[in-house]
Design a protein that fits this description.
2 domains; 6-stranded antiparallel β-sheet; 13 strands; 4-stranded antiparallel β-sheet; single chain; Immunoglobulin-like; about 210 residues; alpha+beta
C-alpha cells in the first residue's frame, strides 16, 4: 500500500471517528470544569497526556489531528482559542455550537510533535439567558465524528469524551447580591434616622 493511499484511508478513519481500543487505552484525555454567572467569561481546557513508554500513538510524530468541541448553544458562546502547542497551521472553524481544529501533513514528510502531551483552552462567554446548572461539552459525536490524532505510522487515537476524571463542563449559577459591610449598614441606619427626624420636625411645624 502506498503512503498516499494509506494517508487517504487514515483521513477517512478520522472523518468517521473509528479508533483502536489499544490506542484509546494508552493516551489519557482529561478536561477542566468552570463555574460562572450569566455574562461571565470562562476558560475550559482539554488535556491529552502520554500514558507511558507503551503508547500506541507516537505523540512526537503526528501527521494529522482533528480536535472538536461541542456545546449547548443556549449556554455558551465561543470567544477564543489558545494552546500549549503550535496550532497556527491548523484550520480553525467555529460555529454557534461547535469548534473544529483540523490539520494534515500534506507533504507526508513533516509531522508535528506533541511530545509530553498538549493542552487546548477554549474561552467562552456564558449567555445572558443561559439556564442554571451544569452543561457538558464533548469532543465528538458518537458514531459520527471524533477528535483524533494520527502518527506517521497511521496509528489512530480517537475520543469523544474524557478517558479519566470528570467531563468538561460549565456550571451556571445565579448572581448573588453582595452582603453590606458593617460600616455601610451603620451609614444606612444613620441616614434613615436623619430622614425620620426631619419628617417628625416637619410634622410638628405643620401642626
Amino acid at each position: 500500500m502506498s503512503k498516499r493511499l494509506a494517508y487517504l484511508l487514515t483521513t477517512v478513519l478520522l472523518v468517521f471517528g473509528f479508533h483502536t481500543n489499544n490506542a484509546l487505552a494508552q493516551l489519557s484525555v482529561s478536561a477542566s470544569q468552570a463555574t460562572g454567572q450569566r455574562g461571565d467569561s470562562v476558560d475550559l481546557t482539554l488535556t491529552i497526556g502520554a500514558g507511558g513508554v507503551s503508547d500506541e500513538v507516537d505523540l512526537s510524530k503526528i501527521s494529522a489531528y482533528n480536535f472538536y468541541f461541542f456545546w449547548d448553544p443556549s449556554v455558551l458562546s465561543y470567544s477564543s482559542l489558545s494552546s500549549t502547542a503550535d496550532l497556527s497551521s491548523a484550520i480553525v472553524t467555529p460555529s454557534s455550537d461547535s469548534l473544529a481544529i483540523d490539520w494534515f501533513d500534506l507533504s507526508f514528510s513533516s509531522p508535528v510533535s506533541f511530545a509530553g502531551g498538549l493542552s487546548i483552552t477554549a474561552s467562552f462567554q456564558i449567555l445572558p439567558g443561559a439556564p442554571f446548572g451544569a452543561s457538558s461539552l464533548t469532543f465528538g459525536q458518537p458514531g459520527f465524528l471524533s477528535s483524533s490524532l494520527v502518527d506517521e505510522n497511521f496509528t489512530v487515537f480517537a475520543f469523544d469524551n474524557v478517558t479519566q476524571g470528570s467531563p468538561m463542563q460549565v456550571t451556571v449559577v445565579p448572581s448573588t447580591s453582595p452582603v453590606p459591610e458593617p460600616a455601610e449598614v451603620s451609614l444606612l441606619l444613620a441616614g434613615l434616622g436623619i430622614l425620620g427626624a426631619v419628617a417628625r420636625r416637619r410634622k410638628i411645624s405643620i401642626s
